[in-house]
Amino acid sequence: KTPGFIFDLDGVIVDTAKYHYLAWKKLADELGIEFTKEDNERFKGVSRKRCLEILLEMGGIEASKEQFNAWLLEKNEDYLAYIETMDETEILPDVPKVLQYLRTNNIPMALGSASKNARPILEKVNLLSYFDTVVDGNEVSKAKPNPEVFLKASEKLGTKPEHCVVFEDALAGIEAANSAGMTSIGIGDAEILSNAKFNFIDFTEIDDDFLNTLLDGVGS
Ligand code: BG6
Ligand code: MG
């Protein structure tokens, strides 16, 4: 049986995690909340709404629904200003190499992202056509670490969870993949992502041999 490959977007395929951080940092500064890069780890893979809830909890701030939505909008507008001019140069190293290898081997591929901006970003960097299906923040109601996004992707690919491989840069994303019963691959700091089945700093460390091992081991 052919395995299905599922990719997170922000911080795995494109270097957008830094823009999410900058947009949250700006809002945090305005609200007088201290927000560090370490705090930002908890925001990775987590929906926009949940991120704002966490930020307000950090600052002990209560907000009306209107105010909450206004801050959500403000963060997203700042984020969109950062990604407006995005192009292929923001694809993370060797990602196209891996996508191309999998495509050549007719491996079904899905995007599994919490972002509501996933499609326009994939279009900007010209990678949308690699994916057989895109499951993003517009379709899921339960944020990672809930496995909903990956389970939906596996369903759409027609591949059982135990035959799926997930690439993730977020702690919450690795947890989601693991609880979906999928093979999790951590991209980034192995200390933070110690729950992943395999760890790599980035895609330059992923070679054809490793991919072949996955293709043989996960699909069978
Ligand atoms: C995830 C990011 O991919 O998408 C999170 O890791 C982000 O940091 C989430 O909050 C939601 O993104 P968006 O684009 O819908 O605000
Ligand atoms: Mg991510």
Could you give the topology of this structure?
Layout: E1 4-7, H1 17-31, H2 37-41, H3 48-59, H4 65-83, H5 95-104, E2 109-112, H6 118-124, E3 133-135, H7 148-157, E4 164-168, H8 171-179, E5 183-187, E6 198-200, H9 208-219
Parallel strand pairs: 1-2, 1-4, 2-3, 4-5, 5-6
Bound molecules: 6-O-phosphono-beta-D-glucopyranose and magnesium ion.
6-O-phosphono-beta-D-glucopyranose (BG6) binds at residues 9-10, 20, 43-48, 51, 76, 113-117, 137, 170.
Form type = globular
Query: Order of strands across the biggest sheet?
Result: 3-2-1-4-5-6
Q: How does the helix and strand content classify structurally?
A: alpha/beta
Name the ligand types.
6-O-phosphono-beta-D-glucopyranose, magnesium ion
Question: Can you count the helices?
Answer: 9
How many extended strands?
6
Main beta sheet:
6 strands, parallel
Helix share bin: 40-55%
EC number: 5.4.2.6
Enzyme class: isomerase
GO biological process, one term: carbohydrate metabolic process
Catalytic activity: beta-D-glucose 1-phosphate = beta-D-glucose 6-phosphate
